[in-house]
Amino acid sequence: MKILYCIQGTGNGHLSRARDVVPALQRHGQVDIVVSGIQADVEFPFPVKYRFKGISFIFGKNGGVDMLESFRRFKSKKFFEEMRSLPVEDYDIVISDFEPVSAWVCFRKNVECIGLSHQAAVMSDDSPKPEDSDILGNFVLRHYCPVSKEYGFHFKSYNENIFTPVIRKQIRDLETEDRGHYTVYLPAYDDLHLMKHFGRLDFANWEIFSKHNVQKVVGDNFVIQPISNETFINSLAGSTGILCGAGFETPAEALFLKKKVLAIPMKGQYEQQCNAAGLLDIGVPIVSSLKSKYYDVIEHWVKNSELVQIDYPEITNEIVDWVIASHTKKTDLPFVDFLAESKL
Could you tell me the pTM of the whole model? Predict the structure, then answer.
């Protein structure tokens, strides 16, 4: 079987999840990989056959997505050239983790494209949504990556096609401890904002990771350094908790590691507003921005909040088996009955 697996490369979460999804797919045949996007910070250990610019959302420096810069960097001519270069019809199955080039090629050529992503779960009517509607954000999320059938990952299983998060093996194998610090990852804030606020939050020690930092800076109660996979994971494993954006993989991994979580959703990012609603649904506190009026909430979280107890079992192979069996003639795969019965 020839499988085309297509991954969104904006941010780190899609590629982190793909580290475990790719081996599960390789159990079923030859896997060629597409990656599009320009803002990931993690290394990817598998060969990428097709690497595209795609459509990337650019992180700003004041808590949100820089839509103007995102639009400025989008090159429609380049996007259509990338579409023409991708032979989706040569594959037995195309699976997309919110990757737009492959999805639009499949749409244009009437080839089935299977969505396997967190965004698929976010868009489900059964998943939590923010109180304030965002017509534009909802439109972008629903039309950015058109697929034929959707399976999703979320903080909870809200229906039979929504699964609990894929926790990569590197995280599952971690030995954790509590060294007393709090890890921070807020990629939509620049270093000046981070240093100003966390320097004032002197009731805790903060290990801050920044997309904008090029040289390590040490303050009285914080250290700020460039983001890297190994140093970040080491910090998280030794932390009491994490203050992070309302992404998906980072909060999910922290919850799996039994760390306290406080999330700040990006401004103008509807998906993160939906994630914040999902985190609230399982008991994780949310603040809307990194401002002085929320210092008391952050201090209460540090001094008084309790862990959210939740379990994320290792079922990546079972999920992939379920998807493959549902869209090919391979009906004799292991674990399919297990997933059908458990409706994870």
Answer: 0.87
